Amino acid sequence: MPCDINQRDIQAGWLTRARKGAQKTNCSEVAEVYPELMIRDESGRIDGVRYDELAPMLLNEVQQQQRKIAAQDEQNAVEAAEIRDLTRRQKQLAIQEMQLRDVQRQLALMQAALAKLDGQ
After folding, report:
1. What's the pLDDT at 92?
2. What is the pLDDT of residue 89?
3. Looking at residue 11, what is its pLDDT?
4. For residue 63, is it within any domain?
5. Residue 37 lies inside a defined structural domain of this protein
6. Residue 28 located in a structural domain
7. 108 phi and psi angles, rounded to 5 deg
8. What is the 3-state secondary structure (H, E, C) of 40-106?
9. What CA–CA distance (Å, rounded) separates 83 from 89?
10. CA 20/CA 73 separation, integer angstroms
11. Within a 10 A sphere around the Cβ of 49, how many other Cβ atoms?
């Protein structure tokens, strides 16, 4: 949605201390994401942006993202614990499988020795 303003496109230059240079946000970009922040004239044309409302909205979005990330981190921790438990169980099963094969070999040897004794 282009900004149809008689003057140049409204731009707010925010100098970010964390980055070199200025971050600019124009009303076209804001209109695409948050059309409710647009100031419109009687005919519905975009006349400006409510930049004073942009910061609280962005803060809310950041907080929501942080909550989602925290929930994902928690889920990742649960899944990592499940993976560790499954890996431990898999190792135990491998050990038990080797022990079972060993017992089966011993049983086969005993059966062969018993059959030999029965044949005498």
Report:
1. 98
2. 98
3. 41
4. no
5. yes
6. yes
7. -60, -40
8. ECCCCCEEEECHHHHHHHHHHHHHHHHHHHHHHHHHHHHHHHHHHHHHHHHHHHHHHHHHHHHHHHH
9. 10
10. 31
11. 23
**What are the beta bridge partners of residue 15?**
22
- Domain range for 8 is 1-49
Biggest CA pair distance of the chain: 114
Structure tokens at 7: 């003057």
* Count of the separate structural domains present in the chain: 1
AA identity, residue 79: E
Going residue by residue through the chain, which has 120 residues, state the pLDDT in tens, using 9 for 90 and above.
Answer: 445 443 334 443 333 333 444 445 667 777 888 888 888 889 888 888 888 888 888 899 999 999 999 999 999 999 999 999 999 999 999 999 999 999 999 999 999 999 999 887
Tokens of 37: 């922040």
Q: Is residue 18 part of a domain?
A: yes
